[in-house]
What does this fold into?
Amino acid sequence: MHEYGITQSIIETAERYADGKPVNKIVLVIGESSDVVGECIRLYFDIIAENTICEGAAVEIETVKPMLKCNTCGALFERKPFSFECPCGGEGEPTEIGREFYIKHIEVED
It folds into this structure.
């Protein structure tokens, strides 16, 4: 349910950025481990954006998969289910990759 408040903040940010011009598109980056559900943001966006300069804007979501970093070789890799093992045989540790959540781009009408 926290996506409702997040969506309000996205719209407020887009309105400040657009400086009164209609917003055509907002691109979000959401990591799979960020605890933010992109589909909920899409659902709330259409409701909250009604009668604002963001009404009708497209919401695109770029998803970032979580990555582990190997303690042995230093490589970043995707975790396989139930394993932290790197392809080199070393053990991986969680990183911040996959926890992202930010507005990447706001497109406004000229």
